[in-house]
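Hi C.,

You asked whether I'd gotten around to modeling the 647-residue construct. I have! Everything is below, sequence then structure, no commentary in between.
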Amino acid sequence: MATGTLTVENVGGIEQTEAEIPPGVTVLASPNASNKTSFLRAVMAALGSNQVSIKGDADEASVNLDIDGETYNRRLERTGSGVTFEGNPYLDNPEVADLFAFLLKSNEARRAVQSNVDLRELIMRPVDTEEIQNEIDRCQRERDRIDEQLDEIDSLKQRLPALEEKKTELESEIEDKRAELSEIEDEIEDADASVENQRKERDELEAKLSELRDVRSTLEDVRYEIEAKRKRLSSLQDEREGLEAEIDDLSEIPEQELENIESQVDDLRSQKQTLDAEISELQKTIQFNEKMIDDAASGSHPAADIAPDGGDGATVTDQLLDQNAQTVCWTCGSEVDVDQIESTVQNLRDLRRQKLDAIDEIESELDEYKQQKKDIESQQRDLDEAQRRLARVENDIESTESGLDRLTERKESLTAEVEDLEAAVEALESDSYEDVLELHRTANDLEYELGRLENERDEVASEIADIESRVGEAEDLRERRSELQEELTDLRTRIDQIEANAVEQFNDHMEQILGILDYDNIDRIWIEIVENEVREGRRKTTKRAFELHVVRSSESGVAYEDTVDHLSDSEREVTGLVFALAGYLVHDVYEDVPVMSMDALEPIDSERIAALIEYFESYVDYLVVALLPEDADALTIDHHSISEIGA
């Protein structure tokens, strides 16, 4: 891993600074209100996060990160509608990193334990469940097609024994006919020697017999084609009846209902967009006020230099140390309790939660309407496809009937021609040559029958070859079906696997951290996957959730389950950080961004901070942490220190 160089201008409270960030732990060691958080946000901005602000007296800001021979940069510009971002950040999409890598005090995953939000929702947020479902549907459709092909192949395989038997019978008949024809030809040869003087009449008769054989062969071919056409016509008529029945089953598409559904979907999407905008504004307000509260607590807020009574010498920073600390409201300028502002911020959080719940209900309704629309559109597609197939079948029936008429006319013509030729042959026959002529007629009939048998055998052999070819495809189809089944199993269990992995990661790391930090009377903090029945729109459904458990021991050594609300600030901070680490590992965030940032660790004592940083270092290539000097002094691991950040 290479050392990175960060250059910052006009970010947060920093006017200009440059610093190196080597692999391992980098500690920003300086007092409160010394731009440590601004530095961390600058690092985050270079990596792709938008959780950064421009210095109050500037209109533009920039961040550059040079690492591994590459330069990543962001440019910020203040506009009338807000702040615009340009440049080439490390990440194209910082959503997962914002959740699990950039662990500032306001980080949503880190604060999840304190604010009692849905832990499962946070862990599963980066997972595209809709795309997983689309993949499941695709695999199921392909698997169903393969099942149909395998069923067809099995049906064809059942025909093979009968076809093989028929082929054997035909070959036996052909051999018998050939032997019989050979005997007749020998007899004809003997008979021809005794009637050489009648060759002219015989040649004429043979010509007629040959012509008769050819016409009979053509007639048989026409009859065979007629039979095939009739079977084809019957099959098409059956198919037409089936399609007509299918079209009758498909009711008329309720166009008005489809329009109503689309209208409802548009309305719900509009409501969701409005709520999203409101939630975004609430989140900005909450984050701003949280920062102002933190600044007031650290003495960096502008009101910290103003005595609350107008000049008795006591600063707001001093008063913040009291139980009922006051500060100057940054919205109206009046003196208020910090607790009152925190209460207002909590109300804003509750309002945001209500709006998120409203979005959940809207999304549930949207899913119902989308499914209804999908069903109607599917019904319409089925109807359209059935009508197209019916039209093709009608055309095939018309074409087949026309061909059948032509073949019937051809058969009648050939039948008449055969009758004429038979009459001509009969006229050429004489009593003296009756035996010879009978032999020729027999040979002619045998040749015709032999040709018919050979044609039938070739057709059976061709059908057997086709079936065997299809049977040969079965193994490949079964292998593909097995692959699809494995893929389906993986897709169906992927969400469960992510949930289980997240819980396992949290529980394992939490157990190790508690053992290292040695908190008094905490035996265990762990997550359990539970199922709860909830209402989505007008229906009830079962949803999985993560339930956080705290197990303590009494003075007598008896274990009992406590509530999260009773955790100390230090215990909550550690639990939130471990939850974020679980998300970092479950979603392989380290593969996309090797940097983790962390600040506001003051609720944790120095020794535990040192142990916590040492633990996190083993999972992160670059760990950038903001600490007070006294906390930084407690570190025992090798680290790079930055004490001058820049004004």
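If it helps when you're writing up: Residues 338-428 form the longest helix (91 residues).

Thanks,
B.
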